[in-house]
What we know:
By secondary structure, this protein is α/β, with parallel strands linked by helices. It is built from 11 helices and 7 strands. The N and C termini lie far apart (70 Å). One 2-acetamido-2-deoxy-beta-D-glucopyranose binds next to loops.
Amino acid sequence: MTSITISRQFQAVLQSSIIFIITFLTFSAFFISLESQSPASKTLHISQSECKAWSTHRKWKSLKFKITKRTKLFVKLEDFFWRKDVSRLPLPYGMQGSELLLLKVLAATANYDMPAHIENLDCRTCVVVGNGYSIRNTSLGSLINKYDVVIRLNDAPVRGYEEDVGNKTTMRIFYPESASSNPGLHNDEDTLMVMVPFKPQDLRWLKEILNDEKRDSRGFWKPPPLIWLGHRSKVRVLDPHFMHQTANKLLHIPFPPKIKQKSFHPTTGILAVFVALNYCDVVHVAGFGYPPKQDQQQPIHYYGNQTMKSMKDSSHNISREARALKKLEDLEAITYLHPHQ
Ligand SMILES: *[C@@H]1O[C@H](CO)[C@@H](O)[C@H](O)[C@H]1NC(C)=O
Ligand SMILES: *[C@@H]1O[C@H](CO)[C@@H](O)[C@H](O)[C@H]1NC(C)=O
Ligand SMILES: *[C@@H]1O[C@H](CO)[C@@H](O)[C@H](O)[C@H]1NC(C)=O
Ligand SMILES: *[C@@H]1O[C@H](CO)[C@@H](O)[C@H](O)[C@H]1NC(C)=O
């Protein structure tokens, strides 16, 4: 008798616990979805629930382009020289003809990985902070600092803009012309400085810096810094695979370029989004977008005073990139942290 009573009581307790748990889950899901509907609110949490396998899976399925998720981001001595699927193209899509420069760069850096505390996360939440004017006055800084991985671009400053852009930087993606001479000023001590090689000169620049050789500044469209105070153990070289895939799969840039047509390269911004889609489980973005073409006065960036005028002769197709970003947003592969056009 007693044992039956106990088990009946136990059943009742079990039932009510189950009901409680279900109710709790339903409510949490409700609040999480409420939050994701108002991404501009400052109380937005980076929801680990977004990491659940099903949502990641759905995300990738809905992207429709076939993508082999590759999470090794940086060029490594061993795989680069022995890997079978290495591209046979010259830079920016492959290392053909630049192998020796690459070898010398990699020998000097000797580090090719992400830090273990990020690499070993079950769920990687990432934010790509674009340099666009749209991030001004958003007060997103403290939210941005909460992501596992904060990716910044080129020489965008942090000091003086912390309220809107935060001050944590996990990776900074740049190329020589967009490098700032002293990365220590606007980065953390352990920020990875990730160089995107567009051309052989870019690797040559890095090799000369790392080995303190005589600088040769020929072949750049803007003089790169001749003194660069970054720490060699923090330098990485982005695998050209990502540039190739961004151009080819995301932007559908014709390759090789049609005769007489200008060749376009992805911006570091869209490249960073693509890198994040490969590496991260959650990808949020802020500071993307350009002013309308007809508005020649509005600044492009959240810092400085560059306007659309200066983009006139750029080798980027920003309308194509805007379309690709819109598509990624519609597919819920990326989420904007602030309202945008
Ligand atoms: C940002 O806010 C400041 C002070 O509230 C204001 O002066 C400035 O015009 C705002 N900037 C933008 C881009 O809205
Ligand atoms: C970011 O700002 C906070 C608060 O001012 C400070 O404690 C922290 O050390 C800063 N981090 C970096 C990397 O500058
Ligand atoms: C733009 O900013 C730079 C430095 O910040 C300054 O030297 C230059 O005069 C400014 N140009 C205009 C048009 O305001
Ligand atoms: C940019 O891409 C769009 C397609 O997205 C294309 O129609 C346009 O011609 C391209 N711009 C240039 C200058 O090639």
